[in-house]
Amino acid sequence: MLPVAWPDVVVFFPAAVRPLVSTSPAPMLSFVIVARRFRHTKRVLLHLLQQHALGQVEVVLVTESRATFGADDAVLMRFPYCAVIEVGPIHDVSAAIAHGMRSASAPLVVWGEDHAFPAADFAARIIDRSGESWTALGPAIFNANPTASLSWAMLLTSYTDWVEVERGGVWYDLPGHNSCYRREALMTLGDALPRLVRPGGGLHAALRASGAQLVLDPTLRVHHLNPSRPSVSLQHRIESGRVQASMDVQRGNRSIARRLLSIPQCPMQWARRSLWGLRAWRRIRRRELRTANDAARSPAIVLWIVIAAGCAALGELVGTWVGCGNRQLALAEFELDRDRLRSPRDTEVVVA
Q1: Residue 180's beta-bridge partner residues?
Q2: So what's the pLDDT on residue 264?
């Protein structure tokens, strides 16, 4: 691999890129993924190799050190464009993803995950719409491990209105992860980008304030692998809520009066999140009744939705008053090793 200098990082490109694989002189779309170990990303990388527009796709892997990453060059060399970026110890996944977005060479950037699997036509559909006026283009989210009730509850309380959505067009908000952004618009955010891409950081609000158009395209399909081990998964939900509320306080969006109100509002937030999740479950349940997926129809999902929503509300209350402390680091540990969030019994992975 040949190293190429980059501010504060080192970028490695394949030493023997095959020009005939690529259909364009430069990539049109970059998938940016943060990972500590190659074994955590291998599954999604092999999946991305099935992209119909592979010749126009760049993969940007942000990691702590190439030495500890343990890359399989035989896999990376199959991509016409690939970069492995070393950023040192990753204590904040958001800062690492911002690094990757800045380092991407394509005009379109997908905020990828090592546990999310885009459909084979995902990149091609985005590139086909690149001439339109959108700034961010969001996908419909599907369940990649649908045999566990908790998996459905975690998906429905995280992605809610975007789960198996059928209505496209201009939306107020989009999934943060797995959406596509125009890199030029992200770069205008400057030094604020790492803060904005944090949970609750307000990336889409900042884009809307600049006049950006957020569009959802339900033909863009992403299968998301969800937590399904109860104890660890619910702890992850508490940590996420705490970090998100803490970021909201840091942005000055929660005055003392609003923070005082957060105490009686906590049960209301719990109820509201539960209702959102249950509404989304009712919507997709009608569709799943026509399938053999018993887990998606299980009444146990109702209980898990209420519990997951309660954990998120509790985390937000703690984050509002105590801050996130070192919870950002704990959240990074969760995000960089998602396999430990899955139940040993939850072995089936369904990918489009």
Answers
A1: 110, 137
A2: 74
